[in-house]
Amino acid sequence: MNNFNEILVAEENEKFRTEVATMDKKGTRKWVYAKKSSGKYTNYRAIVSTILLTALIVLPFIKLPNGNPIFKFDVFNTVFILFGYPFFTTDFFLLAIGMIVSVVFIILFTTVYGRLFCGWLCPQTIFLEFVFRKIEFLIEGDRGKQIRLDKQEWDEEKILKRGSKWIVYYLLSFFFTNIFMAYLLGSDVLIQFIKEGPAEHIGMFIGINIFSLFFYFVFAWFREQACTLVCPYGRFQGVLIDKKTIQISYDYVRGEKTKGRAKFRKGEDRNAEGKGDCIDCGQCVAVCPTGIDIRNGSQLECVNCTACVDACDDIMTKINLPTGLIKYASEENIAEGSKFKINARLIAFTSILIIMLVAMTSFMTNRSDVEVKFLQVPGRDFSVEGQYITNTLQYNLMNKTNHKYKLTVDVKTFKEGKAEILSEPNQFIPIDEGKLKQGLVKIKIPKSKLTSYKVPIDLEIKDEKGRVVDHYVISFMAPF
């Protein structure tokens, strides 16, 4: 009988490996009533979240000296602006490089730092923990009051509190949806829509309300399930995290010792009794926004939010035991009883991450304002005009800025070379912002300067002030 009970206890303790913490075996939702957390890490995260939320709200309304916003993602007109630099569909190679860098970055970052991003920077975590759950605490109270309110009949108090919370939730959802629209359409367009009223833009108004309802659904009901059921990052964690990965960890060596956890008794020498420092108070579980027990080890539901760290440190301080029973540490640190150290792997991986970010930033900032290509015109060969050999080329110019250009072509390789723009009478090519311009140009080079039937020449595109905007190397055909 004792063996049977031990088996049942063992199965109960191990069920977290086969079950999601917020669902029972039948798939029924277990609502998470997270206790309000407080402490050092919570305060740090609140500062980070405040900065990020402020940036989210303010950035689309800031214009840089070049007239561009800092960010704009106009999918309707395929115009994208990153850090004030406009990008178009012709910049696909940068998108490809960016995607590769992002994938490698995620792999390396997660291998070294675990789900640090999820706990500190993820929009889902920031909105839920520092916006919507704050409203919930303000209206309904802390964990205990929320549980009692949920079990309460739909009386006047419950209707008032739940109704107030839901109205505020929707107003917040509508507000943030408009902020997101400022990133899509531009702040000027959004402000114009607001001034003209929904009657003038009924389609846009309906679309904003539909997205607001989706936003409301995610944070009023779906909540932590977005992290545990939808987000693929948690699944990556299972294959990327190893024994050296830094993550939120429970020090089971110190917490369990030889006799395991035990309730706190005043005046007891726990060390002499062989009892661990964990007093099984359950506060780490009560504050967890995904409803897990961190003492069971690394789990895909854990978003590394540090709420359990603050809760445990608070209890340890109250009973005069050292803090850090739950902390940032690797599995190797816990097993060996060693402290976190900056090792060669951490330095190497972090260096690679920094190099990738610098390289990507360099690609973006060093991109030319006008992209140029010269092509040989099909069916046309060289021709002879007196002492010159001529080639007729087709030019393709893409203006990647938000201002107009007047451009001309110059033969850099040969000082005696000439360029005549056949499609423009005044030898300047006008091109509007964000537009593609095509035409023909005749390149003339003295015959005496040519030594081969194919000579590479460097053609420069210059603006009205003589500033080189871009250049292109192409083979010049000659009669040799």
The span between the termini is 100 Å
> For the CA atoms, what is the radius of gyration?
32 Å
Largest sheet: number of strands, sense, barrel closure: 5 strands, antiparallel
Strand content: 15-25%
Point out poorly predicted stretches. Answer: 4-10
Structural class: alpha+beta
Task: Kindly report the average pLDDT value.
Answer: 88
* Portion in helices: 40-55%
| Number of DSSP strand runs | 14
Q: DSSP helix count?
A: 17
What global shape is seen? Answer: elongated
What does this structure look like?
This protein has helices at 2-14, 40-58, 92-113, 116-120, 123-140, 143-151, 156-185, 187-196, 202-222, 225-230, 233-240, 252-256, 270-273, 283-286, 307-318, 331-336, 344-365; strands at 71-74, 79-82, 85-87, 247-250, 326-329, 370-376, 383-385, 388-399, 405-411, 418-421, 429-431, 436-446, 454-462, 468-477. It is of the alpha+beta class and 480 residues long. Strands 6, 7, 8, 10 and 12 form a five-stranded antiparallel β-sheet that branches. The chain has a four-stranded antiparallel β-sheet with strand order 11-9-13-14, with no helix packed on it. Strands 1-2-3 form a three-stranded antiparallel β-sheet. Helix 3 packs antiparallel against helix 17 and helix 7 (156-185) packs across helix 8 (187-196).
